[in-house]
Amino acid sequence: MKPFEIIEHTADVGIKTHGNTLTELFENAARGMFSVITREGANPQGSHVEKNIEINKDAGELEDMLVSWLSELLYIFNREKLCFNSFKIAGLNNNSLKAVAGGVSIDLYQNDLYTEIKAVTFHNLKIEEDVEGFNCTIIFDV
Questions:
Q1: Which residues are 137's β-sheet partners?
Q2: Cβ atoms 134, 21 nearer than 8 A
Protein backbone atom coordinates (compact mmCIF):
# COMPACT_ATOMS: atom_id res chain seq x y z
CA MET A 1 0.00 0.00 0.00
CA LYS A 2 1.28 3.49 -0.87
CA PRO A 3 2.11 5.72 2.10
CA PHE A 4 -0.03 8.47 0.55
CA GLU A 5 -1.69 9.55 -2.67
CA ILE A 6 -2.63 13.06 -3.78
CA ILE A 7 -6.32 13.64 -4.48
CA GLU A 8 -8.21 16.55 -6.02
CA HIS A 9 -10.96 18.23 -4.01
CA THR A 10 -13.15 20.97 -5.51
CA ALA A 11 -10.98 24.11 -5.10
CA ASP A 12 -8.56 22.48 -2.69
CA VAL A 13 -6.14 19.55 -2.70
CA GLY A 14 -5.77 16.63 -0.36
CA ILE A 15 -4.03 13.37 0.38
CA LYS A 16 -5.16 9.92 1.34
CA THR A 17 -2.53 8.64 3.73
CA HIS A 18 -1.89 5.21 5.20
CA GLY A 19 0.29 3.68 7.88
CA ASN A 20 0.71 0.35 9.62
CA THR A 21 0.81 2.30 12.91
CA LEU A 22 -0.45 5.71 14.01
CA THR A 23 3.15 6.90 14.11
CA GLU A 24 3.67 5.85 10.49
CA LEU A 25 0.36 7.50 9.51
CA PHE A 26 1.49 10.83 11.00
CA GLU A 27 4.92 10.60 9.33
CA ASN A 28 3.35 9.70 5.96
CA ALA A 29 0.86 12.57 6.29
CA ALA A 30 3.78 14.98 6.66
CA ARG A 31 5.54 13.44 3.64
CA GLY A 32 2.33 13.74 1.66
CA MET A 33 1.85 17.39 2.59
CA PHE A 34 5.37 18.27 1.47
CA SER A 35 4.84 16.30 -1.71
CA VAL A 36 1.87 18.58 -2.42
CA ILE A 37 3.96 21.69 -1.71
CA THR A 38 6.90 20.63 -3.87
CA ARG A 39 7.05 18.91 -7.21
CA GLU A 40 7.80 15.23 -6.68
CA GLY A 41 11.01 14.45 -8.56
CA ALA A 42 11.93 18.15 -8.91
CA ASN A 43 11.98 18.49 -5.15
CA PRO A 44 14.51 21.01 -3.75
CA GLN A 45 14.69 19.10 -0.49
CA GLY A 46 16.19 15.84 -1.79
CA SER A 47 17.25 13.55 1.06
CA HIS A 48 19.84 15.87 2.64
CA VAL A 49 19.04 17.33 6.09
CA GLU A 50 20.62 20.66 7.10
CA LYS A 51 18.56 21.35 10.19
CA ASN A 52 16.42 19.36 12.63
CA ILE A 53 13.53 20.87 14.57
CA GLU A 54 11.98 19.33 17.68
CA ILE A 55 8.21 19.54 17.76
CA ASN A 56 6.06 18.96 20.85
CA LYS A 57 2.30 19.29 20.54
CA ASP A 58 -0.64 18.69 22.86
CA ALA A 59 -4.22 18.15 21.68
CA GLY A 60 -7.38 16.38 22.74
CA GLU A 61 -8.19 13.94 19.93
CA LEU A 62 -5.99 12.18 17.37
CA GLU A 63 -7.52 14.22 14.53
CA ASP A 64 -6.71 17.43 16.44
CA MET A 65 -3.17 16.15 16.96
CA LEU A 66 -2.73 15.39 13.25
CA VAL A 67 -3.92 18.85 12.20
CA SER A 68 -1.75 20.46 14.88
CA TRP A 69 1.33 18.47 13.74
CA LEU A 70 0.88 19.32 10.06
CA SER A 71 0.01 22.95 10.83
CA GLU A 72 3.18 23.34 12.90
CA LEU A 73 5.30 21.94 10.05
CA LEU A 74 3.58 24.31 7.61
CA TYR A 75 4.15 27.26 9.95
CA ILE A 76 7.88 26.47 10.31
CA PHE A 77 8.17 25.97 6.55
CA ASN A 78 6.72 29.44 5.92
CA ARG A 79 8.55 31.18 8.77
CA GLU A 80 12.00 29.63 8.44
CA LYS A 81 11.90 28.62 4.74
CA LEU A 82 12.79 25.09 5.83
CA CYS A 83 11.54 22.42 3.44
CA PHE A 84 11.10 19.23 5.47
CA ASN A 85 12.04 15.79 4.12
CA SER A 86 12.62 13.75 7.29
CA PHE A 87 10.01 12.97 9.94
CA LYS A 88 10.48 10.89 13.07
CA ILE A 89 7.73 10.61 15.66
CA ALA A 90 9.39 9.78 18.97
CA GLY A 91 6.19 9.63 21.01
CA LEU A 92 2.50 9.72 20.17
CA ASN A 93 -0.55 9.14 22.32
CA ASN A 94 -4.08 10.49 22.50
CA ASN A 95 -3.04 13.89 23.80
CA SER A 96 0.63 14.54 22.98
CA LEU A 97 3.17 14.23 20.21
CA LYS A 98 6.97 14.45 20.31
CA ALA A 99 8.80 14.47 17.00
CA VAL A 100 11.86 15.61 15.10
CA ALA A 101 11.52 16.96 11.56
CA GLY A 102 14.52 17.66 9.36
CA GLY A 103 14.94 19.57 6.15
CA VAL A 104 16.87 22.03 4.05
CA SER A 105 16.70 25.79 3.74
CA ILE A 106 15.23 27.03 0.48
CA ASP A 107 14.58 30.33 -1.23
CA LEU A 108 10.86 30.31 -1.98
CA TYR A 109 11.41 32.68 -4.91
CA GLN A 110 14.20 30.61 -6.48
CA ASN A 111 12.57 27.21 -6.17
CA ASP A 112 9.73 25.90 -8.29
CA LEU A 113 7.10 25.27 -5.63
CA TYR A 114 4.09 23.37 -6.82
CA THR A 115 1.30 24.45 -4.45
CA GLU A 116 0.99 27.00 -1.67
CA ILE A 117 -0.90 25.44 1.23
CA LYS A 118 -2.68 28.06 3.32
CA ALA A 119 -4.03 25.72 5.99
CA VAL A 120 -4.64 22.14 7.06
CA THR A 121 -8.40 21.61 7.44
CA PHE A 122 -10.67 19.39 9.50
CA HIS A 123 -12.96 18.83 6.49
CA ASN A 124 -14.18 15.20 6.75
CA LEU A 125 -11.04 14.31 8.72
CA LYS A 126 -11.34 10.99 10.52
CA ILE A 127 -8.53 8.60 11.38
CA GLU A 128 -9.75 5.05 10.80
CA GLU A 129 -8.26 1.68 11.61
CA ASP A 130 -8.73 -1.44 9.48
CA VAL A 131 -6.92 -4.75 8.95
CA GLU A 132 -4.12 -3.01 7.02
CA GLY A 133 -3.45 -0.34 9.65
CA PHE A 134 -4.57 3.28 9.83
CA ASN A 135 -5.76 5.68 7.14
CA CYS A 136 -7.32 9.09 6.69
CA THR A 137 -7.98 11.77 4.11
CA ILE A 138 -6.61 15.25 4.74
CA ILE A 139 -7.77 18.30 2.80
CA PHE A 140 -5.52 21.37 2.48
CA ASP A 141 -6.77 24.88 1.82
CA VAL A 142 -4.77 26.16 -1.17
A1: 16
A2: yes
The CATH number of whichever domain residue 98 belongs to comes to 3.55.10.10
Structural domain of 93: 4-141
Alpha-carbon distance 135 to 52, whole Å? 27
Query: What 3 state SS string does 79-118 have?
Result: HHCEEEEEEEEEEECCCEEEEEEEEEECCCCCCCECCCCC
pLDDT at 104 over 80: yes
Report whether 38 contacts 114 (CB < 8 A).
Answer: yes
Classify each residue of 95-119 as buried b or exposed e, where b means 16 or more C-beta atoms within 10 Å of its C-beta.
eebebebbbbebeeeebeebbebee
Model pTM? Answer: 0.91
How many structural domains is the chain composed of? Answer: 1
